[in-house]
UniProtKB/TrEMBL annotation:
Organism: Pseudomonas yamanorum
Taxonomic placement: Bacteria, Pseudomonadati, Pseudomonadota, Gammaproteobacteria, Pseudomonadales
The entry's keywords: Glutamine amidotransferase
Database matches in InterPro entries: C56_PfpI-like, Class_I_gatase-like, DJ-1/PfpI
Signal peptide: none
CDD domains linked to this entry: GATase1_PfpI_like
Domain DJ-1/PfpI: 8-182
Name under which the protein is recorded: Type 1 glutamine amidotransferase domain-containing protein
Amino acid sequence: MSSQLHGKKILIITSNTGIERDELLKPLEALRGFGATVTHGSSKGGSTQTFLQDTEKDRTVESDAKLSDLHGSDFDALVIPGGTVNADTLRQDADALRLINDFVKAGKIVAAICHGPWALIDAGVIEGKTLTSYKSVRADLVNAGAANWVDAQVKECPANGWTLITSRTPDDLPAFNEAIAKTLAA
């Protein structure tokens, strides 16, 4: 266990279903391993359903709080896992969009993986940014005003006082988690 993120607080937001298991659990474990305090907030609070490759139900995971009870000012970074259903649900969740905007306005780190950047579109924060995502999300991001989409394991885009970190798939999780930790520790 490392202490490089001791004193840092990270919020991971999800819906209550359709979450890609490793995109929730691997960042949660890795960032705690770096010494951060990590909170998992979900739309309704309570039990959340994870999936493997968007199709196979996996385990349920208890969230720590309901999104409506959380405030961006209490955290240093925000992480948005993928899963098609999860990301599509979050992009329609007023509390998720409010939290994303809280982090952006406060100049904090926002990290999203796979389909997670969909929520950034509806939060209105990707215009002019360079980012990556699951390949099928590319056209949506470009059509919503992203400056550029890149096919890279991880892409960090500092912009207007806040930092956007994105990755493509669960295969990129080690690089994604490391980028979050490195940026947060700086």
